[in-house]
Fold F420-dependent glucose-6-phosphate dehydrogenase.
Amino acid sequence: MTVLSLLELVRVTQDTDAGTAINNARDLAAHAEAWGYRRVWVAEHHNMVGIASAATSVVIGHIASGTKTIRVGAGGIMLPNHAPYVIAEQFGTLERLYPGRIDLGLGRAPGTDQLAVRAMRRSADASDQFPQDVLELQAFFAPASPNQRIIAVPAAGANVPLWILGSSTFGAMLAADLGLPYAFASHFAPEMLLPALDAYRSRFKPSAQLDRPYVVAGINVIAADTDAEATRLATTQQMSFADMVRGQRGLSKPPIADIETYWSPYEKAQATRMLARSIVGSVHTVRAGLQAFVAETGLDEVMIVSDVYQHQARLRSVELIAEAMTPLNAQALRDELALC
């Protein structure tokens, strides 16, 4: 069976503000919990007016406070932006408040531009220390020794699972060497998905946290009652990617009738390349697409990105995606029982 989870972008739209985006994220998580999703993650981005999750640990706490059982975490914290000691304190605190529900995914990119990197007082080469920073973070979560002089309170001894995130084979190999679960960003970097999965699985070394490879990958899925309506809703994300190609990141835009009137041939080619791992359509279309994606990759978990402009339409999309996945998991369970 394949686990279903969500990456929540905490989008600020032309009709909302940051507070509304954060509250909508919590509401979506509460609904996703009822619909059977395993976890919801938010990502650290800076200097982007259209994304309200810069203070990632604060947003995670807000979402966790409005839910009961779903795991909530970072997908991820961009570790080069921070001292590992401070991240351990933050996520140790979250784990004490919401025990057994907090995940900590770690990324090597800054999640922003160089202006914001300088504003955060971080060096441009901080990402070179990423493997060492991960090990340092692990040490702060370990139980404190009797004579240990530097303790990350209340992180020491907290059960916060670490994940390595990536969009290339670098993160895959690091996750494998450390025996950590791996999450690949195929929702915007689809070309390296299969090579990264191969690198991770072939190099994996069991650890105290994980005894076998565990892989999650992101995929863009937008569902609606009809294929035509889903196609219209998907223009919001297509415009966001076209704007990214233009270097004009802004607020999320409402869907339009014809995306061809918005982007140039070059913008279309670049955006389509990044969005190659996308499924857009009715429940039937989404079910077929998810089945093919899981069969191709052998994933343990699928992390859905459903970038829909209007909150109620996004709730409906996430509900329909869960509906599409249920028969697939039921069939997988029947196949597994038949082999016993």
